[in-house]
Amino acid sequence: MTRGTPPYVAGANEPLALLHFAFRAVVAEPDARLAKRGLRRVHHRILFFVAHKPGQRVRDLAETLGVSKQALHGPLQQLLRQKLVQSRQDPDNRRERQLRLTAAGKALERRLSGHQRRLFVTAFRGAGAGAKRGWLAVMRALARPC
Description:
- This protein is mainly α.
- It has one domain (12-120): Arc Repressor Mutant, subunit A (Orthogonal Bundle).
- 66% of the residues lie in helices and 10% in strands.
- It is built from six helices and two strands.
- The chain has helices at residues 14-36, 41-52, 58-65, 69-81, 103-127, 129-143, and strands spanning 85-90, 93-101.
- The chain has a two-stranded antiparallel sheet with strand order 1-2.
- Strand 1 (85-90) and strand 2 form a beta hairpin.
- Helix 1 runs antiparallel to helix 5 and helix 2 (41-52) crosses helix 5 (103-127).
- The longest helix has 25 residues, at 103-127.
- The mean pLDDT is 93.
């Protein structure tokens, strides 16, 4: 298969096809690394958001991810068992738990997300600063409804 959009995808469908192929390229390497640990993409999302807001409550993470606490429970338990995430009682509300990455969790998240950041740096460098600003504007507009 050649790189880029297949010739049969054009017009209004091209952005959708490009989003599909770009996303597939961005997640391929992290997904393979996660699979070796028995983990999936949801685990990477948890690691990413906990890394960038340490101490957040489980309820806040579930809200950020757009899932219920019940849906978050299984993947989070796997990360706790593998000692990638730690959970501590919230000192302000003893019924709540705060999440942080362990040293191993931080290292894994840096490897997974670092690969993705490098892909974006390379793509933005090739497309130019104006293209990067435009892409960020489009992504922010699309993310707004979430």
